[in-house]
Amino acid sequence: MTINFRRARSTDLGAIVTIFNESVDLPINDEVELITPDSRRAWLAEFDDDFPLWVAESAGQVVAWCGLEPFYPHPAYRFAAEISIYVGRAAQGQGIGRCFLDLVDRQVHDHLPIKTIVAYIYRGNQASQHLFTTAGFTRWGQLHQIANLNGTFHDLLIYGKTYKKD
């Protein structure tokens, strides 16, 4: 499978939502109901050159996405981002997540103003923990039993990576 990575466009929103919705029934996602493109239009519009959203395409179809969002809306945190990666079920296990993390590393080193990236991962999501660990993220902490997903409480693990910037 040949994968191409590019910045997301507004026309990708339907595919992005579809990929996101594939994980709604899994204990790796904060949502408990399916989302719609209309509910995510404003979210998509917030991505910019400093905090981008990328998609992975195969045969002209969006199969995964990765976004960097501001970590917290306060000026003191303007160099920190939260990362999200979602890979469609049909494209999982092909290294797309790792390719996204390599892309993020290159972009941060080349031009993004980001110094720190934080990833929130549910304890049960072993695949994401492995992915981020092998990409140089370390576990910084956990929020114990913080999320109630369909009546079950889950721990949220915090992984992070700090980049050396000149």
What is the CA-CA span between the terminal residues?
Answer: 37 Å
Shape: globular
Order of helices and strands: EHHEEEHEHEE
Total number of strands: 7
Give the structure's gist in a few sentences.
With 166 residues, the protein is an alpha+beta fold. It contains four helices and seven strands, in the order E-H-H-E-E-E-H-E-H-E-E.
Could you characterize what this model shows?
The chain is α+β, with helices and mostly antiparallel strands. Helix content is 25%, strand content 35%. The protein contains four helices and seven strands, in the order βααβββαβαββ. It has a seven-stranded mixed sheet, with helices on both faces. The model has no long low-confidence stretch (mean pLDDT 93).
Give a topology summary.
Blueprint: E1 4-7, H1 13-21, H2 37-45, E2 53-58, E3 61-70, E4 80-87, H3 96-110, E5 116-122, H4 126-134, E6 138-149, E7 152-162
Parallel strand pairs: 4-5
Antiparallel strand pairs: 1-2, 2-3, 3-4, 5-7, 6-7
Task: From the structure above, extract its key features.
166 residues, alpha+beta, seven-stranded mixed beta sheet, 4 helices, 25% helix, globular
